[in-house]
Specification:
alpha/beta; Rossmann fold; Arc Repressor Mutant, subunit A; 2 domains; five-stranded parallel β-sheet; two-stranded antiparallel sheet; globular
Length: about 210
């Protein structure tokens, strides 16, 4: 029996996953969480075999959430569930220790396959993900600075790139000005930039601005 925890802030998504999982006799959902803190507490209590983790939670970007789960529960197999297509975050998720990357909206059978594969300690790759990773390994995909950003950091790049001020970015995302400044500092460090003007130029050049 594969014991499973779901971490997603959307109840509709959690209900959808439960509907997919329940007909499979070898899978059992032992808990669900709406944010990372809930997930950490729940996993410590029920010790599942696999966690299905949304890449964007209210209290953590998914890759940060993945890092937290990997730190606290090294033996846990994590399958990332994301609204983003594979080319944006699949490779980064796998490098960070995920056992699979499943875009929301895929066939139910793919999610079940990903969970079973992860439970075996193997990495699940969809045909599309395999093709993208092979394409990158062949050197046909140039690594760009923004590829290392988390989903939240990418949102902030898009908004600053569109010309919004820090207060406007904070209001748009429903977070504090201090949080935006912290994210911006991380973005500058990761991308090797030193000013909003440079960030705006980069965002416009690479089609990231909203």
């Amino acid at each position: 029996m594969i014991r499973l925890v779901i971490a997603d802030d959307h109840e509709l998504i959690r209900e959808g996953i439960k509907k997919i999982v329940r007909p499979n006799a070898d899978l059992k959902i032992v808990g669900e969480a709406a944010d990372l803190n809930q997930a950490l507490a729940l996993i410590a209590q029920v010790r599942p075999d696999v966690a299905v983790l949304d890449i964007s939670l209210p209290d953590a970007d998914g890759l940060d959430g993945l890092a937290a789960l990997r730190y606290h529960f090294p033996a846990l197999r994590v399958v990332m569930l994301s609204m983003h297509p594979e080319q944006r975050y699949a490779a980064a998720s796998l490098r960070a220790g995920a056992f699979g990357y499943v875009p929301k909206g895929v066939a139910a059978s793919e999610l079940v396959d990903a969970i079973r594969t992860a439970a075996r300690g193997e990495t699940w790759l969809s045909p599309r993900t395999s093709a993208i990773l092979a394409h990158g390994a062949a050197g046909n995909v140039r690594h760009l600075a923004h590829h290392s950003l988390t989903p939240r950091e990418q949102e902030i790049v898009a908004l600053i790139g569109a010309g919004l001020q820090i207060k406007q970015v904070a209001a748009e995302l429903g977070i504090s000005v201090s949080s935006v400044n912290t994210y911006r500092s991380r973005i500058f460090r990761k991308m090797g930039l030193a000013s909003n003007a440079a960030l705006i130029r980069y965002a416009v050049q690479h089609g990231l601005a909203r």
